[in-house]
Every structure is written in structure tokens, then in C-alpha cells.
Amino acid sequence: MAALRQRLSNSGRRFRTNRCSPSFPPFRIRRMPDLLSFPRPLPWALLPLAIALAAPALAAETATGDASASTLDTVLVTGSRTSTRTVKNSSTPIDVISAQDLAASGQATLLEALQRTLPSLSQVGGYQSDQESLIRGYQLRNLSPGYTLVLVNGKRRNASAYVSGANGGGFPGHAWADLALIPVAAIDHVEVLRDGASAIYGSDAIAGVINVILKSQASGGSASIESGESYDGDGARTTIRANLGLPWGEDGFVNLSAENTRQHSAIRARTYRDGYLSYPAIDAKGNPVALGTYNSLPAGATPNPAEANRDTKANRILSSIDYSLKSLAANLGHGLGGDADFYATLSASDRTANAIQNYRLPATIFGVYAAPSVLNVWPDGFSPVLKTKEQQYTGSAGVKGLLGGWDYDFSVTANRDTIRTYTNDSANFSLQYPGAPTDFYDGKVDYQQLINNLDLRRSFELAWLSSPLDFSAGLEYQHEKYRRDPGQWESYTGWGAAAFVGYSTADAADATRNSKAVYVGASANITSRWFLDAAARWEDHSDFGDVSTGRLTTRFDFTDAFGVRATVSNGFHAPSLGAQYYQATGNCPCGTTVVAQVGSPTALALGAKPLRPEKANNYSVGFTFDPSPDFHAALDVYQIDIRNQLGQSSQIGYNAQDPANVTDYNGTALSAAQKATIDALLASAGVSIAQGDAYYVSYFTNIGDTRTRGVELTVEASQDTRWGRLRYTYAANAGKTDITQVRDIPTVLQSLPNINLLTESSEYALRYRTPRYTQVAGLGWNQGPWSANLDFTYYGPIRRLTNGHKYQLAPVLVTRIGGSYDFGGGWSVDAGVNNLFDKRIRKVPDRYRSASDRATYTENYELGDVLDTVGGYWYGRVNYRF
């Protein structure tokens, strides 16, 4: 049964390798030194500490039977078709994170745990707005989360139904797998491939692959309860996890997991200035009147008596998310007799999350929106709450075995993600009638995915090779469906629900596509020290055509301790159905803004073209150094060139609310000829801008090309001492992204001002979202029932652009400490502190803030900071194993 479980746990291996396509890029070793040409030396502040800690282990004896042993000899199932590859001898950089490492991080979700463990994986920003605050993005090698493929036991996990773009989205047109929905209780370990692998896995694997391997024990189990809160006494979180292994007949297993997390919000308010009024002023006749510029008191008026009791901390938008997450998972397998095995994985997640939005002042309700009936309902203003209810179901089932000398694996994978959005405690200022709703259903997005795979593999003994040739081939068929349903009519009529305008009937979508793929490949040791692996793949999509990818990776071990590895590949990221059919309409007193579907008459009239797949060329070279069983080091440099980066066009249209001064979206005055050009373009799509109105259109488009270069270093060592066993870890990633080409502006828009496919702020978001470098160092100790760890994460500088000002956030060190004690009999306890020194999201320097912001708030915060708003957090956990 143990052998069966091992085979089934290795179902993550995709036996796909392909011959190189004609477009396979040449590997030019002479270019590789350029990868290290950073503008100035990197301050590797933690490196001397890491080397000093690790050095004693070079002479240490090998330890055996230790539960805290490293994962260096773990047999990999990601990015390779041979079962002889481990972390130490892998031809590509792969990190293995154990279940113990995930639990020891003290984080609520898999995403947060990985982000604290891997310097190459960055969680996007300390704070994000709207739905992106609920469905968090992450960046592997400083690239969009849409470029990282997520697998569970080697089977593709679906991307979210959410598409980034409007409402503050940071990665226009991209969708990604939500790692937070995978229950940590079900995970045996996680393998993170830091290299391009589209030739093996298809779309999305440009930056790398995260493969989650589930537990497969047929007996025993565990349960834990964890609780903690922030230093401020809020943001309390309770997590209950359980896992149970059961036998299935004589040669099978059923492994079940459940997880329930309740996270309360950590309230972090912004403070209004003393002179910034909250209520309408009172004129000489005792009537309310609108306030002046920056909510100042108008001439001849007096402050509203309600100002005496106003809440200066009413704006709580920077507060953390409040959510409830329930997840279930099952991993099972059973022999079918002979050489065939059945396997399946199932998971279900249900998350309800709430995010506080900007406070609506009573003065704004009265003066800007002129909504007295709303003021009757909310006399002191209101804070809308964006609420999402998300259900995700994933499952794979298959049969694998041996037939006619071939290893085969046939599987069916079905995934679905449904997100319903609500705006609560809000108002539609256009609806001026008693009893108008204050809670709105904004609509639903739904994404479904069905995948059929047939993988084949066979080994051939060839006299001229040092090892058997592992040949692999396969077929894949994928069907996708995307649907967006409108919300209740009050959520989008007129100005729509304040904070999040619902999906309108015009924005509804119902689309499908299918794709088919063929992949082949081979790997072998050419000599006892030279390993070579080739892969290629051809895919054809029903909506944008075919794509060919290839990958060649090699490793040469000069000695048993020193090896060199290199990979060259090309890859692609298919434009999602959500991106191709995305449309969002928003209304406010400033006018109407539309993110038009790229294939709509409006977008086509304004120069839109069908979205093309984003394509990449990946190059990497590295070495590994293993002078003893207790020491491992690896250094890798990489370059990733991406063509046809997806982005969003400029806002096209004008503001005619002042007929004597018609301006574009940026406030630039338009000539009569420029206004006529816009009118003619929109008229050809049946759209007209009414006198006294404002209307702007944008759309998703391929904006240009980028080049990302970086270097990664990992060091791991262990040592037995008279005081116990020590483990030292150090890892670092440094990278930079450059814009190598920007696409031409559509011909029909070239006579208009301020039309850019890549604005300076968009360029900063693309190039500088993550720190210049990130370093992670750790020291672990265990002796008998005791264990402890001390971890440091050192985030490098981040370049910022705010209100036209360019500046840099200084590096910051975040510290974590934790420990545990095993009582025996299956009982143990853990305790720890994350962010020991209470580092929090940093403030924008006053000199870089806008005049309006300085007049409104006492301070503002760097929303793109790596630090969050919560600060220091302590936790404790009780565990039981049986």
C-alpha cells in the first residue's frame, strides 16, 4: 500500500516533453553576464550573517532520523519527467516547502506562508482596493500572478473568476489561481519551480509553477486550533484544522482534510484634519449649504452644530479584511488489480469576505450628490462595505498504470469558481425615493474549466546513453466557460451603488472556448555527469489560434559536490475569457467611464484589436554546491523577455459639462477638431456624448514588451551540536524589469492628446511593484521536545511615483520568532510572534502628497508598501496527532 501511495502522490509528474519548435530561441551564453548588470551594488545586508551561521555546518556530521531534516533529497514531481531528480541534483531551481514549514510560519493561508518563506514570491502590496483586497495577487520573479501556474498533485488548478482591471486592479486583464483557498491542513509539501515551463504545462507557466502535493497517509491524523490577534488587540483570527487518513480496502487510502478560519478586521482609520468639515454649513437663514473648496466654510455661513460630535476617524478603508473561510479536501487512491491504480482529488472552499470602503461624508452627500433623501437615511454619512461570497470546487480523477510497456495516466479535471458581489451599507444617489435600498446585489462572475489528459511514458535502454531514455508524450483537451450576470437594477442604474457599481445588463457576458494540445519529449543522462531534458508542446485555441513552445534544460556535475545547470525555453500566457469579454460601466457626477469589451463596436471604433497571447523567452544559468550532506547552496541568474504584455488603453472621450471648456480625461482642453474626431469615432459605434455630459472609454490591449533580469541565491545547512540540532537557511532574490518596446498608438487616436498605451504611472506599476531585492534568513533549533526558530525578511527599496513625484521607500527588516514543545502522547503546543517589532505600512511624505489630500487628512499611506496595516501579531496553537 505504501508503494501505491507513493505512486499516487507522484501523480503531479506530467510526463510531457516535446520536441523543439522552429521558433525555439537559441541559447546565447555570451549574453548571460548582462544579467548581473544592476545599476549599483546591492546591499546584501543579511548575507554575512547567513554565511557566518552556515559555515560551521560544512564540517558537521550527517544527522539521521531527525524530524526536522531538510527537504534537499525530496524526489521532485514538478518540472521533470524523471523520478531521479531531487532538489540537490535538479536541473532547474525548485524550492520544497514542507507542511511543518507552512505550519511554523504562523500564517493564515498558503499564500501568506509561501510569501514569508520564498524571497522570489512576493505578495502584492500591503493594501489593495476593492476586490483585489479579497483575491490577493502574488508575483514570482517580480512578474504578474497571471504568469504563475498552480497545480494540485500535478493537475491544473483554475484561475479565479475575478479579472484584474477596473476598480483599482493592478494587472489589467489577468486572472490567477487563489492560493488562499487551498487548505493548509491537506498539504504534504509544496514544490515551487522558478523557471518557465509552458512546454510542459501549457499556458501561464512563464514565471514558474507552484505544485501543491496533498497528504496521502492511510492511517492516523491530526487536529489543531490556533488563535491570535494584533498588538493593538484587534484583527483576531481563529483557525481550526483537521486531517484524517483512512485505509480503503487492502491497498488504498482516503485522506480527508478540513479547515475553518475566522479572521476579524483590524481597524486602521485615517484622520480628518481639524479644519476639514464633515457636515453641510448653515447659512444666515438657518438652511444647510454646500461647503467650499476642500470642505472649507463658505462666506456668510457658520459650521453645522453636528461638527462638535463628528468622528475624525470615520474613514476606515485601510482596515484589514474581515472574512470567514471554510475548506474541505480529499485525496484518495485504490488499486484496480494488475498494474492499474485509480486516484482522485477533491476540494471545496467557501469564503465570505468584507472590505470597508471610503467613508461618504454628509457634506459630500449634500453638496456633490444633492441627495437629501440619502442624507435622511445616513445623516452622519456612511462607510460602504464591499462583500463577496465565493465558492470554488475542484476535482481530478484518473487511472494510471502500466500497459504494453508504457506508463499511462488518463485523467479528467473539473474546476469551477463563482463570485457573487454585494455592496452593503451604501446608497445609489440617483434613487431619490423613500425606502431606496441600502444593500445591493452587484452581480456574479463564474468560471468553469474541464480538462482531459492522457500522459504516456516509456524508458528505452540505449547503449550510447549513460541512463535509460525517458520518452514521454501526451494529449490534452480543455474546455472553458466564462459568465458574468448583472446585479439588481438599483446597483447599476444612474450612478449605481456607491463604492462598487453593479454589473449592468450591457456588461453581461457568456462565452466559451476550447483548446487542444500535443506534447512530446525525452530526458536522459548523456554521460554519468551530463543530464539533458527536452520538451515541446503545440496548442490550438478556438479563439486566437495555435502556439508552439519548447524547452531545453541541462545539468553537468563536474564533481559530486559541484554542478552547473541551464535552461532555455519559450512560453505563453493565453488571454483569459474574462479578459476578452470584460466590460464594466461606472457612473458618477464626473461622468461615465466604460471599460469596453475589446471586441465590442465601441472598442473597435477606437482602434482596439483582438488580444494576442503574451509570449516569453526564458534563459537561466546556475550552479549548485553540496560539499557535505548537510550543506547546499545554489545560485541562478535569469532573463525573461515577454512580448505583447497585456494592459489597458488610455481613457478616450471628453467632458462637456462646461460647453465653453471641453476637456479630455486628464483635464487638457480639446480643440474643436479633436472633439469632432472623438464624436465621429463614437458615432460609428452608435454612441454619442450628450451636451453637458462626460464620457470616457478604455479597453484591454497588448501594450508592449518587457525584459526582467534577476539573480537568486539559496543556502541551507544543518549542524548537530551538544545543545541540539541547528538549521540555517538563507535565500535572496534581486531583479529588475525594463520596458523594451511600447506598441504604436492606434492610427485613429494619434491626433488626440494624452493617448498612451503606457503612462508613467503604469510603467512604475509594471516595473517597481516589488522590492528591488528580498532576503530571507532563518535559524532553527530543536532538542528533544523543544524547538524554536528565528526568521528575518529584509525587503529592499521600492521605487514610488506619487502625484508626479519620484522617490524611494527605504529597506525594512521584518522579524518573526516562534517555538514549540511536544508533551508526548500526540499533544504539542506552538507559539510565536509575526512582525516582532511592529513594522507597519509607511506614510507618504507630506511634500509628495496632493494639495487635496493634505487638506483632507493628517497623513496618507503607501498603499503599495510590502508592509501591511496590521503590524505585530502574536498567536498560539494546540496540536494533537494520532
What does this structure look like?
There is one protein chain. The chain is mainly beta and 882 residues long. It folds into two domains: 2-274 and 312-881, Beta Barrel (Maltoporin, Chain A), CATH 2.40.170; 275-311, no CATH class. The strands form five sheets. It has a 22-stranded antiparallel beta barrel. The chain has a five-stranded mixed beta sheet with strand order 1-6-7-4-5. A hairpin with a 2-residue loop joins strand 28 (694-721) and strand 29. The longest helix has 12 residues, at 672-683. The two termini are 20 Å apart. Residues 1-69 have low confidence and may be disordered.
Strands, helices and their partners?
Blueprint: H1 2-9, H2 47-54, E1 94-98, H3 99-104, H4 110-117, E2 121-123, E3 138-140, E4 148-152, E5 155-156, E6 187-193, H5 198-201, E7 208-214, E8 221-230, E9 237-248, E10 252-263, E11 281-282, E12 288-289, E13 322-335, E14 340-356, H6 362-367, H7 372-377, E15 385-403, E16 406-424, E17 440-460, E18 469-486, H8 489-492, E19 509-525, E20 530-541, E21 545-557, E22 562-573, H9 577-580, E23 584-588, E24 591-596, H10 601-605, E25 614-628, E26 631-648, E27 652-655, H11 672-683, E28 694-721, E29 724-742, H12 760-767, E30 773-783, E31 786-795, E32 798-802, E33 805-809, E34 812-824, E35 827-834, H13 851-856, E36 873-881
Parallel strand pairs: 4-7, 24-28
Antiparallel strand pairs: 1-6, 2-3, 4-5, 6-7, 8-9, 8-36, 9-10, 10-13, 11-12, 13-14, 14-15, 15-16, 16-17, 17-18, 18-19, 19-20, 20-21, 21-22, 22-25, 23-24, 25-26, 26-28, 27-28, 28-29, 29-30, 30-31, 31-34, 32-33, 34-35, 35-36
